[in-house]
């Protein structure tokens, strides 16, 4: 009955249970979050899974989990989840890989030079290192479709700006602390902008509204300005 | 078949039961802040389902109905007038085409609902017609209504008792707003949160024994509480976790905030409490400056109260549907 990993289960509200697998930002722990979210989605439809770095929120309709017994809905969900965790195969399913084309530097990445100066590396080296890694979408948040990506080369880490911008352009690829992310729409933001993708990250009217999902693998592909224009035009023409 | 917005009021949005199921993509639920009031407004015009209604805040809108319309007002008490007549709330009213409906300000409460028979026919986005102001999702690209906006009304059958008239009409009965609108300002039930024990001893006591006031900075994202600042024994370094409406967070200022319908999907502040879901609409209805205090509850009691409140609402919805048929 012992699990291969620790899990702390917290009843948050009448309709919400939080599973916590650690208290640090860690690639292995985060992969576990996504593996378990996938299992719960498959086995307990109707329970909404909201992954974060090291935790998984489960929300459910209490009226769908009540019966004649004295157990509260949350106890019944906890029982169902415990049974799933006992039997879980800890193997992480192969994540989906999404490639994101990025025009680095100049107007598309006005902070690239500052990031290079902070790292003590050349601009070309920053781009090469940023595009060399396969990242993992730890979670989405802040705004619809905004991915928090794990895996940034520590040499590229840089504390957030002291003066956040009021409007970061949509598609901006940015570094904030130990993480990198992409602004899906024009938003205020304090991360350092190193490039921009012509892809649309979030379209609420699309069949699959978010380009990225929690647990996806992500790689950045450097592109030139002409390719950016071509891809941007193709995005605009898409139905 | 439409309504034109002549004046938008302070903050008027379209809201329905919300947009569940997309939090993993960074999209919150939004939806009506006072969901029983929203649901009852729909029932009073004979809308069976999850139709969008107008949620207005502190000061209501002025609207012109280009067609005959069946409406209901619920939520905080307001002065609502059409054709020089004062319209009753918590009942079903009929407005003839060309009516100008003026909804005034609120002395008590914070949010009112206006439902129309047939519902407001805006396109659903991710399964909901709710406006998410923060994510800019919903009708009018997720913004609040502005003067000049036009809202289509969905197709609907007339009610049997409606008579052709040039003046507003209404039913001879109305619902008792109690317990759906809280005139008495009773204490609000709160569960201890994960970090309650990390509050210093005085702050633990103050949370359940002192009075707070609703800050004027409160909005659809959070109710902010003014009052004695609460302190942690020691600073906490937390990583972001999913959050939900009703979560009471403690930001570094020491002034607690209670997340509401437009709660961000993740957050990293200490969680010192969780409101009983049944009391969340009551907090949403507190007027800026109103006194708020909390009493401790358990998850079992909160779950039971929520189930009872939902059963009571279901019975009332059925009763309203029957009375509308026979009226």
Walkthrough of the structure:
The complex is a heterodimer of chains A (239) and B (327). The longest helix of chain A has 17 residues, at 27-43. Chain A has 239 residues and is of the alpha+beta class. Chain A has helices at 27-43, 73-86, 112-119, 123-132, 225-237, and strands at residues 8-13, 16-20, 48-51, 55-59, 97-104, 135-140, 147-150, 165-168, 172-176, 179-182, 187-189, 192-196, 217-222. Chain A has a seven-stranded mixed beta barrel with strand order 5-12-9-10-7-6-13. In chain A, strands 1-2-4-3 form a four-stranded antiparallel β-sheet, with helices on one face. Chain A is elongated, with a radius of gyration of 20 Å. By secondary structure, chain B is of the alpha+beta class. Chain B is built from five helices and 22 strands. Chain A binds chain B through residues 10-16, 18, 20, 23-25, 37, 48-57, 59, 62-63, 66, 72-74, 139-146, 148, 185, 202, 204-205, 209-210, 213-214, and chain B through 20-27, 125-126, 134-137, 191, 194, 238-242, 244, 246-247, 264-266, 274, 276-277, 299-300, 302-303, 306-307, 310.
> Strand order across the biggest sheet of chain B?
21-14-15-18-17-20-13-22
What's the number of helices of chain A? 5
Q: What is the string of helix and strand elements of chain B?
A: EEHEEEEEEEEHEEEHEEEEEEEHEEH
Through-space gap between termini of chain B: 24 Å
Largest interface, with Cβ-Cβ < 8 Å? A-B, 47 and 37 residues
Share of residues in helices of chain B: 10-25%
The percent range for strand residues of chain A is 25-35%
Q: Total helix count of chain B?
A: 5
In one word, what is the shape of chain B?
elongated
